[in-house]
Known about the structure:
This protein is an alpha+beta fold. It is built from 24 helices and 13 strands.
Amino acid sequence: xxxxxxxAFISRYPxxxxxxxxxxxxxxxxxxxxxxxxxxxxxxxxxxxDAQAVDAVLEDEFGSPADPVILVFEKKENTSPLQFRQxxxxxxxxxxxxxxxxxxxxxxxxxxxxxxxxxxxxxxxKMDVPAxxxxxxLEQLRAVLETDGPGTVQLTGKxxxxxxxxxxxxxxxxxxxxxxxxxxxxxxxxxxRGLYAxxxxxxxxxxxxxxxMGVTTLLGYHLELSNFIINVIPMVGMALSIDFALIILSRYxxxxxxxxxxxxxxxxxxRSLDMQSEILQxxxxxxxRAVLFSAACVLLGLLGLxxxxxxMFLSVSLGAIxxxxxxxxxxxxxxxxxxxxxxxxxxxxxxVHSLPRRSVWHRWSALVMKRPVSMAIGxxxxxxxxxxxxxxLELSVPDASSLPERMESRQAAEQLxxxxxxxxxxxxxxxxxxxxxxxxxxxxxxxxxxxxxxxQDSDVLSIVSPWGLLQPNQNDSRSLFQIPPSALTPSIExxxxxxxxxxxSTVSDHSIRLIATVHGEPGSEQVADWLxxxxxxxxxxxxxxxxxxxxxxAAKQHEIMQEVTSxxxxxxxxxxxxxxxxxxxxxxxxxxxxxxxLMNLLSLAASFGILVWVFNEGHLGMExxxxxxxxxxxxxxxxxxxxxxxxVFMLSRIQEVYRRTGDSDVAVQQGLASTGRLVxxxxxxxxxxTIPFAFAEVAGVRQLGIGITAAVxxxxxxxxxxxxxxxxxLMGRWNWWLPGQMK
Length: 743
């Protein structure tokens, strides 16, 4: 009844529907162009985690900005140290007057622990500007610093790196659109053997992306958006919307062809409103139903990402859900409305000839049905070979190394790491106390105990503390503990000794700060194990009311890894169970959903194996590197649902034939033959959209593009065209088994 009413409404008021969508798309376009200025950083952080709380304490209590802009000053040859220092002083004086700058940590200030060498120096600049508005202030800063002189200046820091990532991501998007859209149009022209239908399908994709980007921009004023959505929305929107349009247009053409053959005259499309409504109703009841269930599977896959409580996954999930829903609405309302007015122009030339009865897909389906065992074994072996490298999967949280080597912010970050001796080490910020209560004897005793514990730890290289710079296995460091903790606070007052400088940087009215340098880089298993071990030893009796928290880059990355790995099982269970229920409702079978989900999981695992082979092991000309931790999660959430798009459509056709004939073998063979061309065309469109991202300049975007490309290729070849029909042939009538019902 719902399909009949919708078809009747669209047939009667097509111009009204078109005008409404033109208005919505036009208004969205005004906001869509602002999206790159609204997005913030990658969003990989625990909003209410200990590491973020430590950043707040360090900034408020010790004046240490959480994410400063770092200036790297490099002395030119034939420049004296005195000239170099004076030049740095002049530059920082000019920087200080910029409106966004609130404070500067100068390398010329002897009381600050900032590196100053004969040929290189570093300065920290704090800007009171939200992350998504850093573009103009950074341009002002560069304009002040780019004047010629006895040295050069490079900018780095998280804000600068993210600004570069945002700019490159938008450039990658433009390049992908320039390459992907023409290829998608060519594929559609081949699929429909004409230009008009292809243009309509591409228009659906562009409309969905523009509208979704406009809606997401409005959300960005209220939510923190990850810069990843700049690439995810177009990638998902173009792929899904064009695929939905392809399915509906193909079925509409078949229904028109059937009506033409039944009526025996060429003017079927222009006969009557009732005839158009009937054709549209049959299209929505078949292809529209398949699109609806496909969209439900994709939606559930995206909703699963919300289990992971990080801003990146929230914003990417919302952005993809928005473009998914808009793609669905456009293709079940605007597309039929356009067909009601122009179907004769789009399809008329294709109606004089019936579709070929024996195509390559008929021959292929006959081959699969003839040798199902060998096909199933061969496909499974190839799939398992692709899955095997997953055992060597290495993940990391992206940093400046995700940028191309030519980028200034990456070069400066690597130089800073080298100069400060941070290779293979991590600085852990340990804060006792907070920002509310004054320090008590319990705070001091806990800090004292923690410092002594760290000194006895073989993984600790050094400790910055109120007692000075402590190093394990050195007696003079241990002797500093002869000073009672309670005597340290009064000693800060009115003195300028070296010891007092340590006190000022490690003690405030509310907090005590320890900085432990440990073996292992941030994100490594060595540091993760150390953090887990040291945290497990914190629960000492008598100190339950004293806050002790860990911060720094290594602690942040550990929190992110913990959140993703702990929540991932919930994501998988949610997606698998809900998709199973949707497919159960769609096909009234217990085994078909099980087989479809298992095949999807195997294709995902195989795509992860290819990612390991390409990136972790450094094949195909790639530099060996870890895979960004969000990439496998995104691929799982996006591809698991998107690949269901092809599966649902193919299985829907098989189900139609089975209900009509009652013969499972005939249903599988005819279903594969009739949908093979369409499924490969849909996959080719998705590949056209995603392959350009495989050549992106940002490493995370490149990994996402290659991962999705691999997953789609595996899904459309090994899964849809080999394993699914072969297994359905072997299972026969049991494909449609449901307790209490056997068709």
